[in-house]
């Protein structure tokens, strides 16, 4: 159920008041600075990964295996940081398919004010694993098995 014109107007007023009162908090809610920081970390991690490859290859060519291990550790650390930055970027920065209206401020109106994830719908319609196991057990007992 979409919001009425009056509700949209009140929501826009509240958003403007929030931006005027605390712009840093509003930008955090928008997630723009967080996405940019995550993207920067991912790019920097990619660069450090390339440096780690160079150090690893330098250790292999020079015959000093200690340098190769240091290069591998550099690669492992940068890959971990880069993947966590990318994972955080897609989780918080991906456009949401359930946002119906986007306001110029960056805030969106969510369909009916409710946000349901796919997982919650799946667990509600099919039940949890233990619920399904218990249901099977009850059916088996009713049929005379075990």
From TrEMBL:
Compositional bias annotation for Basic residues: 115-125
Keyword Repeat included in the entry's annotation: no
InterPro entries referenced in this protein's UniProt entry, alphabetically: DUF3040
Region (Disordered): 90-129
Superkingdom, natural source: Bacteria
Pfam families linked: DUF3040
Keywords per UniProt: Membrane, Transmembrane, Transmembrane helix
Transmembrane segments: 42-61, 67-86
Keyword Membrane on entry: yes
Name of protein: DUF3040 domain-containing protein
């Amino acid at each position: 159920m979409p919001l009425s014109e009056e509700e949209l107007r009140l929501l826009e007023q509240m958003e403007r008041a929030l931006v005027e009162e605390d712009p840093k908090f509003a930008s955090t809610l928008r997630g723009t600075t967080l996405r940019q920081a995550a993207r920067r970390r991912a790019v920097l991690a990619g660069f450090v990964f390339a440096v780690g490859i160079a150090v690893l290859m330098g250790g292999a060519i020079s015959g000093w295996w200690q340098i190769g291990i240091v290069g591998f550790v550099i690669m492992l650390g940068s890959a971990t940081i880069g993947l966590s930055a990318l994972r955080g970027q897609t989780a918080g920065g991906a456009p949401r398919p359930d946002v119906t209206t986007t306001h110029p401020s960056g805030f969106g109106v969510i369909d009916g004010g409710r946000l349901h994830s796919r997982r919650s719908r799946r667990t509600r319609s099919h039940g949890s694993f233990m619920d399904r196991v218990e249901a099977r057990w009850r059916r088996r007992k009713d049929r005379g098995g075990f």
